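New to this. Help decode both lines:
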Amino acid sequence: MNVETRDGLVLEVAGRELTDGLVVAQPHRRRDQYLYAVPAVLLIALLVVPMVWTFGWALDADVPVVGNFRALFTDPVALRSAWHSLLWVGIALVLIGFGYCVAVLSRQLGRLWRVLLYVLILPFGVSAVVSGAVFRLIFDPTPERGMATALFGGNVTWLGPDLIWWVLASAFAWSWLGFIVVLFRAGLDSAGGATFRLWRFVLPKAGSVTAIVVLTVLVAAIRVFDLVLIVAPGSIQDDVDIVGLHWWRMTLRSADTGGPSALAVLLFAVVAVLSLAGMRAMRRGDGAKAVPLSIESIDDSRPARWWSWPLVGGVGLLWIMPVLVLVLTAFHSPESAGSVGWWRFDPFSLDSFAATGATWLWPAVAGSFLIAGLAAALVLVAAVPLAYLLTWVAPRRLARVVTGLLAILAVAPVQMYVGPLRAVFTDLGLAGGRAPLALVHAAAGLPFATLVLRTAFLAAPARDGRPALDGMWRRGPYRTALIAAGVLEFVLVWNDFIVGFLISGSGSGPLTRLPWGEARQFGTSAGTVAAAAVVSAVVPVVLLLATWRRVVVGLTGGIGR
């Protein structure tokens, strides 16, 4: 189109296709933009209000303020459970350090890294209930069923008080080591060769993704409820009792709310300090120069060294073995699985799947889809605007304060808010409902998802500038971060046990709570437990394997192509 000015100058004006979302013209007052945070504030209130309620219960005692806490400190069972929970935090920290070392060494594997990536990440898609069922099968004390007992003899009691902690730690490591290694490797690749000094050692820096790893694994260690419940036989559960289980038993034995609330507050205080310490990694990552990853750059094309072939083969076999144990047990009939080991090549049967499918299977699958899908959608609707405001709109000091608060809420023990919520849902006739459970999951997942998105936004290339909020939903490098947050939330909710169990009980979906019910008679229900575990693991595992490279890129602020 030609435009002629008053001076006779003819200008040719050409239109240009709109490539991003609309940007509201200035002036646009900053306080109006904070309205985008309203959904997030409402969801966070669903956590904070019950937590304040729990604080009130903890302080309400015959001796005000200190009465319930003094009773806990004089209770040897409570002190033992607190020590065990701290031991789980220590296990998580050791696993994080080991995973970092493996990630550093993995840079020498060349093209075999892609193979190892998918092998290691596979267990992350299964729930703690499934992991517990697998390791319960492997270490079953009956030599006819337990592979470890058959190999080492009946004199070694793997599920006894002397070795049970090694079995539990192994199950936890099998589930989480792949997540740690893959994210650290992505952080190392995107850090641009940056280093840091630890004592006398100069080590490569993994960047702000360190905060995501620390927060995620700490949350998993704090919530390690179902793993202990399904792996440890009832006769030795006192030897591995943790705060979560002790809290649950306290609520079953008595209607008193003061003691359990004080226990939850003490655990919350410890993990809050650990979380704030971990957030220092995220603050150090703010503004750091990084080399953005692309989906293609995850695949290392360098030739593999000769020693990497047997190494990857050995690690791969070790990591795949529990999956083989689970699947082969599921393809035995219930009678056969209860009497012989998975390695016995009896005629394969679908009877265990049929036994589960004839009762609760398909309603539980539908319930899990509904709860996980709704929770993931709610989290994205609330977390994206909040992360946007914290990254590009809020003053730096305010953003740091809110980020610290989110870090504390992200690791808040379920026991801090589940008691008041359960009481309210029961009074309103909503106990056992799927929509309230999805809301609780969304509220619990929102702080972590916001931190994930903010980390990804901060690590995105500086040349992209500040994007339009509505454009982030449709295109651009930030869409990959949204996929990452959505997939992680869906998988974590699908695999959840403790939130649904403590709010709704064991008799209603989602899927992961029902294999636990079968596992209470483990000797006679190994086949149906394995079949239920296989079915519950299919959806999250397939989703992770299909999207994992995008998830990794999104978590590190890379560019999705």
